[in-house]
Every structure is written in structure tokens, then in C-alpha cells.
Amino acid sequence: MTGDKRQLMIVATENGTMSLDTHFDEETARLSMDQMAQLYERDKSTISRHINTVFDEGRLSRDSVVAKPA
Fold first, then answer.
1. What is the pLDDT of residue 47?
2. Rounded CA separation 33/51 (Å)
3. In this structure, are residues 47 and 37 in contact, taking their beta carbons and an 8 Å threshold?
4. Are 65 and 58 a contacting pair, CB within 8 Å?
5. pLDDT over 90 (residue 38)
6. Which domain holds residue 57?
7. How far apart are the first and last CA of the chain?
8. Are 57 and 49 in contact (CB under 8 A)?
9. Could you tell me the pTM of the whole model?
10. Would 23 be classed as within a structural domain?
11. Angstrom distance (rounded) from CA 62 to CA 30
12. Cβ–Cβ contacts within 10 Å for residue 47, how many?
């Protein structure tokens, strides 16, 4: 995979360790909502509500952080 910057990130959790296959864009990790839910051990709906709050409060622009469909 030429040009693909896949990295393996290992994160320690209360229950042991886990790994996530993610993409890095320079120093920024790109995670799906499913990966964030797994990382933080929360339901996907909790992650979604938090992200929507960030957008609603204007802390981030949706266009600047949400992946565009291929």
C-alpha cells in the first residue's frame, strides 16, 4: 500500500490492553465512531452525542473533521 500511513496504536484500558488499526494524517489520528467507542469503552451513541455537541457549540466545523464519502 504505497503512501498508506497505517499504524498500530496500542491503548491500555482498565480491562487490559487493546489495539486499534488507524490512519494518521501527520500527527492527527483518524478514528471511526466505532473505534472511538471501543477506545473509550462507551456506546457509539455516547460518542455521537458528544461529537454533535462539539459541532453545535462551534468548537469544530463538521467539514473540517468528518470524512467525505468516497
1. 94
2. 9
3. yes
4. no
5. no
6. 6-62
7. 18
8. no
9. 0.61
10. yes
11. 14
12. 20
1 is a domain residue = no
Q: Residue 1 carries which side chain, given as an amino acid letter?
A: M
How would residue 14 be classed by pLDDT, with cut points 50, 70 and 90? confident
Which residues have a Cβ under 8 Å from the Cβ of 7 and sit 6 or more positions away?
22, 23, 24
**Overall domain count for the chain:** 1
Residue whose C-alpha is closest to residue 54's, from 40, 70, 65:
65
Question: Which residue has cell 498508506?
Answer: 4
- CA distances to 1, 3, 13, 35 from 10, rounded to whole Å, are 22, 22, 10, 12
Beta carbons of 39 and 20 less than 8 angstroms apart:
yes
Mean pLDDT of 54-62: 91
Whether 29 is in a domain gets the answer: yes
Residue 67 included in any domain: no
